[in-house]
Amino acid sequence: MTIKTPPNLNIAGFGTDPLTQRIKDKEKEWTYKIAVLSGKGGVGKSTVAVNLATALAKKGYFVGVLDADVHGPNVAKMLGVEKEEVLAEKFEDGHFEMIPPMNDFMGQTTPIKVMSMGFLVPPDQPIIWRGSLVTKAIKQLLGDVKWGSLDFMIIDFPPGTGDQILTVTQTLKLDAAIIVTTPQEVALLDTGKAVNMMKQMGVPYIAVVENMSYLICPHCGNKIDLFGEGGGEKLAQKEGVDFLGKVPIDVKAREASDNGIPIVLYDDTAAAKAFMKIVEKLIKKLEETKKEKSEE
Ligand SMILES: Nc1ncnc2c1ncn2[C@@H]1O[C@H](COP(=O)(O)OP(=O)(O)OP(=O)(O)O)[C@@H](O)[C@H]1O
Fold first, then answer.
1. CATH architecture of structural domain 27-295
2. What is the pLDDT of residues 234-250, one digit of tens each?
3. What ipTM was predicted for this assembly?
4. Assuming Cys at both sites, which of 34, 45, 106, 198 could form a disulfide with 177, CB separation 3.0 to 4.6 Å?
5. Residues near 187 by beta carbon (within 8 Å), at least 6 away in sequence
6. Domain map of the chain by residue range?
7. Which of 69, 257, 258, 275 most suits a substitution to test ligand 1, by most atoms within 8 Å of the C-beta?
8. Could you list the residue ranges that cross the membrane (predicted)?
């Protein structure tokens, strides 16, 4: 039976222990679970998450994106589905599961399933919750959603190293963590903390992506290192984790994401080429890591 999501969905009372069990059951259907994090806000974490997801979908993989950035959910807008209505299905035991809206970008990608707090709360309404409630909401967006079978589940976490990340990482067995940074010192300091958090959580594959690495001057074509040079790569080396690549600042990337179209769909841009390269490297590394783990 399909019904419309109740308008005043009571997040706090929407499932308790069985919820954790549902997450555990569902994750068996997801081949790779990848968290996208950043030590610092505003470095382009959501931009990287949606472009990685779209690049994977462009290659024919089935992808789900969970916007776990409950306080600033932008993913649905960036993927052009923010106006979609979320339906829910009632199960025999009485629990509801939301049906994630999908976008296949006019057939340019396989459909991407998207779930975000942004669907359930009006855009101008702030979410003023204590941490435990936020954690619960994120868990519901995992366990009370009909995700189905996926090649990749991408989770866009809130910035920083807060307790929500800790709890979700304890519930869900992540295959990889991608830490997004910009090249400047202040961002790198916080990025190191995020890398170490993922190491402590035992995530098998950890990698750094450097966003806003450089700007190609639209007038002279010269490369400008606006925020310094090579910081992300040096940090990855220092921490002993992989470096997946650099994404340049691209004015079109900002314009495109404001219009709900990930830049990776604009094949001729430097940012799109960078994202495709990153995704190819990521797939290879994930397969290698999985093989190594199965041999242990
Ligand atoms: N490579 C890029 N080139 C141009 N603009 C970019 C690039 N990466 C991100 N942006 C823009 O920067 C802004 C912030 O990006 P985004 O929302 O992805 O950051 P975030 O780290 O997820 O932020 P928050 O910490 O608020 O969650 C957006 O307007 C986005 O379009």
1. 3-Layer(aba) Sandwich (3.40)
2. 899 999 999 999 999 98
3. 0.97
4. 198
5. 38, 39, 40, 43, 181, 227, 231
6. 27-295
7. 257
8. none
